[in-house]
Amino acid sequence: MKIVFYGLTITSAWGNGHATTYRSLIKALARLGHRSTFIEKDVEWYRNNRDMPSPDFCSVRLYENWRLEEAALIAEAADADAIVIGSYFPDAIDASRSLFAEAKCSVLFYDIDTPITLSQLRAHGHCEYIEASLIPKYAAYLSFNGGPMLRELETRFGSPRAVPLYCSVDPDLYKPQPVCTEYRCDMSYLGTYASDRQAKLLELLQGAATLLPERRFLVAGAMYPDDVLWASNVKRLTHVAPPDHPGFYSSARFTLNLTRADMVEAGYSPSVRLFEASACGAAILSDDWPGLAGFLTPGEEVLLPRDAAETADILVHLSEGERIRLGQRARERILAEHTSAHRAKEFEQIVERCAAGVS
After folding, report:
1. How far is residue 354's CA from residue 108's CA, in Å, rounded to a whole number?
2. What are the residue ranges spanned by the domains of the chain?
3. Which pLDDT belongs to residue 319?
4. Among the residues of 156-271, which ranges form H helices?
């Protein structure tokens, strides 16, 4: 099967999770014998921060101006067996209209940002990468979210088939690693700055750091304001490249997972970092959200402290044996249900059902 993706980026994982999501899925599809082409706009931010300019599991086509290059970019999908247009693809609306007119196969929309998309659709009927009027024309609406949002996409916006295609983890890349001195700490957090996550980060990590001044903490990620006054025992790193993520997760006694506000409200929104940390055997502390138990069981595979005091209590009093078992159970669960191989098989089944016209 030939699959053509029109997406935000696969060549640069700097400050976004789209790249790791696409890499994981497309690599697994290649192992099943499928050929993929990924089309992305050549923009300065990603051009200057490409950590995978030439993936060995798919071909990449960069372009600068959709209007000038549209004919050639649409022609890339002329012999495709499936076409995927991703959220935040800069020219998604124009591409969708052209592909609906010319494609000889199913055109699917892959929303890696469903809560953001739906909030804009409800308020305005469109956002920068999709319009409500286009949704019924996609053979399937693939969503990073499960739960009630899928029914809304079908009943309110007319999708013929709204199905979850959650993020996943590549177990070849994400597995336990020896402790790395640079990342060794009692609790770590990895994530780009987000204003709606910051209060939770300050409460759970910064708060625990203040209560436990003898312990070491680590916050890694870009775009944090310069005026944040971190505790003296909180180390900051601006960026950790994806190849270093397994070492990062393997070097902290605990790692913290935090969820954007719109994802919490939507529920059923696991992040790729949750799966990656689990695959590395990390002992995870997380905020709570509807549907979390469908991915990791609270108390057995993930712990959910409500405030700094509970976080500090876990760091001090949870036995080393139970900490290790917590991470092992999470790893077993994710490897059994949420690897890239699982997602590739799910994608195959969705495309087959679309081609057969089965709901």
Report:
1. 9
2. 2-168+340-356, 181-337
3. 98
4. 195-201, 207-211, 245-250, 261-266
